[in-house]
Design a protein that fits this description.
Elements lengths: L5 E4 L16 E5 L4 E4 L14 H23 L4 E5 L3 E6 L5 E8 L2 E4 L7 H14 L9 E4 L3
Helix pairs in contact: 1-2
Length: 149
């Protein structure tokens, strides 16, 4: 149906290639010309001022959920003025004993336009449907929990 490309480029900047010494900084480039500075997480000798793959994974789940939610709202003619989320990914050992992002908690806060009334049951169903149709959520086995209000 579609293809999505990211180019990842890393180059050694240290003399030593010992685990504790080599640089983790690299670049993620996308077809629209956007470049994102990437690195390992600080816990794995990475740079705190760059995006690590785990953060990007959590952000992609949250972003996909939001975009799917907005599509559902638009089709229902429920105008959304703002959407914010604080997505939290949890690293732990999975069933196979491997370290993984085992769950992601989404905490979306939706602000509808003045005069748009959405009851709690409808909002919950919209978030459920957004999760069910989110391309990224459908691509992973991580537990994703939506804490909607």
């Amino acid at each position: 149906m579609s293809e999505h490309v990211a180019e990842i480029v890393w180059k050694r900047e240290t003399e030593s290639f010992a685990y504790d010494h080599y640089n983790r900084g690299h670049e993620w480039s996308f077809d629209a010309g956007v470049t994102v500075p990437g690195s390992a997480a600080p816990a794995y000798k990475g740079d705190a001022d760059r995006v690590d793959p785990e953060e990007a994974f959590v952000a992609s789940l949250s972003s996909c959920h939001m975009l799917t939610f907005l599509a559902i709202a638009a089709k229902k003619k429920l105008v959304v003025d703002a959407y914010a989320d604080r997505a939290v990914g949890h690293m732990d050992k999975n069933a196979e004993g491997k370290i993984a992002v085992t769950s992601v908690d989404l905490h979306p806060h939706v602000t509808f336009a003045p005069g748009v009334e959405v009851d709690a049951a409808t909002l919950k169903k919209m978030h459920h449907d957004a999760h069910e149709h989110c391309f990224i959520a459908n691509s992973v086995k991580t537990l994703i929990i939506v804490h909607s209000k």
